[in-house]
Amino acid sequence: MNFPGPKSILARYGLAALLAVGAASAVHAQVRVDRAWVRATVPNQSATGTFMRLTAQKDVVLTGAHSPAAGIAEVHLMSMDNGIMRMRAAERVPLKAGQTIELKSGGLHIMMMDLKKQIKTGDSVPLTLSFAAADGTLSRVEASATAGFAPPTR
Ligand SMILES: [Cu+2]
Q: Between the N and C ends of the chain, which has fewer C-beta atoms within 10 Å?
């Protein structure tokens, strides 16, 4: 019998499975998520932005996002183009080890589209962020964004 060693188990299931098990323990997460918030919506609003601070423990690339609150969650980048603010999908956002990047209004954000229901102030919206390391290892980090109309004050 040839049992898979720890290395091939990692390769087969990805670090995601391991991280999912230890999601509650931030110590093991490769990326720390702070001050996550989502802009509350009015009835029938179909999209909104989610913002946070991300601090990577090692070089990784943010490759996507997912939330049960939205049909589609995309990493978006706002930029000025000839005086016009434009928004486009950012497929890969590199994070440098030890550096904090801020997803904020008017800049990088997670766009939640096809919202399942109204997001009200104080709601807690679960969010899964996907990352890829330089060696190809994939991981996921679970976060929770608090709904409001302004960034959290602490
Ligand atoms: Cu957007």
A: N
pLDDT (0 to 100) of residue 134: 87
Q: Which amino acid is at 140?
A: R
Give yes or no for a contact between 43 and 30, defined as CB atoms under 8 angstroms apart. Answer: no
Cα-to-centroid distance, 6 and ligand 1 (Å): 39
Cβ atoms 87, 49 nearer than 8 A: no
Residues whose Cβ atom is located within 5 A of ion ligand 1? 76, 87, 111
In a domain, 80, yes or no: yes
pLDDT digits (tens, 9 = 90+) for 17-62: 444 444 443 334 589 999 999 999 999 999 999 999 999 999 999 9
Tell me if 112 is assigned to some domain: yes
Q: What is the pLDDT, as a whole number, of residue 154?
A: 63
In a domain, 13, yes or no: no
Q: Examine residue 76 and state whether it is found in any structural domain, yes or no.
A: yes
* CATH code, domain carrying 125: 2.60.40.1890
